Amino acid sequence: MAQFVFENDISSILKLDTPLPNAPLARWQRKAKEGGGTSTSTSLVSTSINTSTTSPMKAANRSQSASKTPSKTPGKSGGKVQHTPSKAGGDRYIPNRSAMQMDVSSFLLTKENEPQDGTPTQKDQQKAWALNLNGYDIEEAKILRLGGKPQNAPQGYQNSLKVLYSQINTPGSSRKPGRYIPSMPDRILDAPEIRNDYYLNLIDWSSLNCLAVALDESVYLWNYTTGDIILLMQMERPDEYIASVSWIKEGNYLAVGTSNAEVQLWDVQQQKRLRNMSSHSARVAALSWNNHILSSGSRTGHIHHHDVRIPQHHVATLAGHTQEVCGLKWSPDGRYLASGANDNVVNVWPCVQGDGGDFAPVHTFTHHQGAVKAVSWCPWQSNVLATGGGTSDRHIRIWNVSSGMCLSSVDTQSQVCSIFWSSNYKELISGHGFAQNQLVIWKYPAMTKVTELQGHTARILNLAMSPDGCTVASAAADETLRLWKCFEVDPVKKKEKEKVGSNKNSIIHQSIR
Coil, strand, or helix at residue 129? Predict the structure, then answer.
């Protein structure tokens, strides 16, 4: 029986919902006994409430005389607090906040939200602390910008994180990445004994992918596909040399201008000279084909038209220059012939219309201040012509031969020796001599530099373009021939282009049938 009594005592002790018999009185019970009962406590509370409604200042004074200020700890005595009895063994405290306290709290909150204008001394001190701790002023180092030009990072800014800028007008995702242009040549070939003469035109690339190179008194043919090299011809006398070479459009005949005032026509497949045309009295440094008409420019300043189909080949003479003709090009549509000479003049001639034709130039441009050897027609705009001046001029000028206006002019800061337009991009490439000896690719029509191709150690004499328009050959006075793959087409775009071409051909065949 004793153990059952012990268990009952333990269970009664562990019950938490029954009042403890020997526990001390609750605080509100003690206050009621000390104040003389519940009525006194109630009257004090009512008095406190009534006085607080009349005047905040008076209520505060009366509360100080009547009782202590309520403390932060609810268990301590001394404040006029209305108590509500809870369950046995617990209290509940509700503080009585006066109107004065509410006003003070509202003032403090308003003061917190107001911008704090510190004194200049405090601002300087905070800035000095920021510079010492971070190495830069936090207020000046902005990470993101919503618009306008991006700001540069502060001097001495060495944060491991990158400074990012966000602009609404020009998002980075809309910018197209630039195409890759190799800075090194694809191949380098030796060109021993090439003549270092600015006025000569010593290389040309045929439509059958064969490169003709004139090395002093010899002409060599290099097949780009197979790599075979053929010696086509040699001058008979040691003091004579090759001054110019030019392929016919079909690529099976080569015209050769010599220092002894001759124009020779060669069959490349048979490696045989077909005819020797003599009409000039000085060396022939420039040649250009227009179907069956071969135009040749001489040191005397005269241009002769040769009809290679007839025995009397000399059909016309153009006399518009006073010094050696060194640049000569027919337009792609065969309507105009552009000629540049050592007299700093560019002439644009009309197509020859028989013996009774008018042989006066359509336009004469005298803007250049140096010899004009670089002459090239735009492949997609047959009326646009590009010309480049020598050391005294150094300018590339773009002309509209229909209106006779100069569309643009750019100072290249170097001697312009040759110009070629790209058929794959709206760009043109120029070869230069003194003082950079480089190739420059220009964006048309803005005429801004795309890139520079360095490698030659002496001035570039001539440029030639491959039949597919992807590779440019440069011959220089350093006796090297370099091939640059600077206009290669993206393979995806190339397939799309070939697909469009095949579709056009199929439509043509269907219409013929």
Answer: helix
Say which amino acid occupies 92: R
- Does the 187-502 domain belong in CATH 2.130.10.10? yes
Going 168 to 174 to 177 to 178, the CA torsion angle's sign is: negative
- For residue 293, with 0-12 CB atoms within 10 Å meaning exposed, 13-18 middle and 19 or more buried, which class applies? buried
Give the model confidence (pLDDT) of 451-499 as tens digits: 999 999 999 999 999 999 999 999 999 999 999 999 998 776 666 666 6
Name the strand (E) or helix (H) holding 476.
strand 472-476
> Which of 246, 255, 253, 392 lies closest to 327 in space, CA to CA?
246
Residue 42 CB partners (closer than 8 Å, separation 6+): none
- Pairwise CA distance, residues 302 & 282, whole Å: 10
* Interatomic CA distance for residues 164 and 28, integer angstroms: 65
Give the tens place of pLDDT for each residue, 44-64.
Answer: 334 333 434 444 444 344 444
Handedness of CA 472, 473, 476, 478 (dihedral sign): positive
- Whole-angstrom Cα distance, residue 20 to residue 17? 9
Q: What share of the chain is helix, strand, coil (3-state, %, to 5)?
A: 20, 30, 50
Where along the chain do its domains lie? 24-69+78-101, 187-502
Query: CB 262: neighbour CB atoms within 10 A?
Result: 19
